[in-house]
Specification:
single chain; 226 residues; alpha/beta; 6-stranded parallel β-sheet; two-stranded antiparallel sheet; 8 strands; binds manganese (II) ion
Length: 226
């Protein structure tokens, strides 16, 4: 489950992240906002019925921005949130976009090692869209690669994109990483991803974005149907 923020504005109604996240990034408000999202997501997930969090493969994904990664005390802040909420570190996946991780500074390296030390999972978001040096996969001890939707959307009818995705999956598996495909929207795309041995997929065909309160019910229905 990936936490995605919406802004419920008193006059304008529900505002999508595309409209306010860039401004939050620009102004630096993304730092307190990102921290708020993480705390809310952890405590919300703990309110879901017993059983979901016990599933060994359950992960709560939360996006981290470049500005948050630049905070010297980021790991301490996240440790405090885990402590306050009681959310299990090993079931929290922090998503960092490839372009941020490519800023291969000592500060980034330090921040990622500190995060790893908490026991959380690290995910490279939008994989395949940034600068294609792969050395950092080794340096940063990431757990999951999330392949960008642009590759997934044409995977069923573009032979070259299928080759790229297949290559990313083989590379990831050889390095001991799992792969998430983002943007699976048709049966043909999911079939293709299965053929290519992709581990996980995320997209409208599997589940549309839903309010946190609806996820408990959604997971329960799925569990009963399984
Ligand atoms: Mn993400």
């Amino acid at each position: 489950v990936e936490a995605l923020v919406r802004w419920e504005h008193p006059d304008l109604g529900l505002i999508g992240p595309g409209q306010f996240i860039p401004i939050a990034e620009e102004t630096g408000l993304i730092v307190p906002l990102g921290e708020w999202v993480l705390r809310e997501a952890c405590s919300e997930a703990l309110r879901w019925v017993d059983g979901h969090l016990d599933a060994p493969d359950f992960l709560l994904s939360v996006n981290l921005s470049a500005r948050q990664l630049a905070q010297e005390d980021l790991a301490e802040r996240i440790a405090m949130i885990l402590d306050e909420t009681g959310f299990p570190a090993e079931q929290l996946a922090l998503e960092i976009t490839e372009s941020v991780i490519m800023d291969d500074t000592e500060a980034t390296l330090h921040a990622l090692h500190a995060l790893k030390g908490l026991g959380v999972k690290l995910v490279i978001d939008d994989f395949g869209t940034g600068y294609s040096s792969l050395a950092y996969l080794k340096r940063f001890a990431v757990d999951l690669l999330k392949i960008d939707r642009t590759f997934i959307q044409s995977i069923a009818d573009d032979a070259e994109d299928a080759v790229i995705v297949s290559g990313i999956i083989s590379l990831a598996h050889a390095l001991g990483l799992r792969v998430v495909a983002e943007g699976g929207e048709t049966d043909a795309q999911l079939d293709r991803l299965r053929d290519l041995d992709c581990d996980l997929a995320q997209g409208f065909l599997l589940a549309r974005p839903m309010p946190a309160a609806a996820i408990d019910r959604y997971l329960t229905v799925r569990r009963l149907a399984a």
